[in-house]
Amino acid sequence: MRRTVLVGGLLILFSMSLVATAQPTTRPASRRAATSPSDPSFAAVTDDPKLPRVLIIGDSISMGYTIPVRTLLRGKANVHRPAVNCGPTTRGVEQLDGWLGGGRWDVIHFNFGLHDLAFVDDKGARAEPPAGHHMVTPELYEANLRTIVTRLQRTGARLIWANTTPVPDASPARIKGEEAVYNAIAAKVKTANPRL
What we know:
This protein is of the alpha/beta class. The chain has one domain (2-17, 57-191): Rossmann fold (3-Layer(aba) Sandwich), CATH 3.40.50. It contains six helices and six strands; from the N terminus they run ααβαβαβββαβα. β1 (53-57), α3 (60-72) and β2 (78-80) form a beta-alpha-beta unit. The two termini are 16 Å apart.
């Protein structure tokens, strides 16, 4: 239990530092290209059975901080993540059981949002607002988050939610500032689940 609190505390501090330093800028090409199977954040982790297990679930932002978290927690925790960009909550609902696997988790750090609020056309291709519609409406985002949280709670892990980062400047298919709407929904779900 003490190890879980330690790891949870370190992840919370790390998340807070990410939010404090987040700049709403366009993601560099090197990060955009990092969603390939060769992304280092997708590397398999060999567990040290004496250490707690941490799972990071999220989009490319989380892929960007997976390696620093592994470095920060080296010798303190086994830090895993799915070998994919976890994308929108719809994908989370569909694939969560596979991402959780059959093992025990001590801490699960998760986020969704930037994909959900992106605009797409009726065929699912990205569309520039006001054309198209949200990939996941705010109402469906809330329902999906509730489903994801309920499933994650069944693991018994310490859950840590990370808000969606600000929409970067010149981000294709998104409206700057709209993350506030999705983060408010996530806050409502979090309030209803005191273990978050």
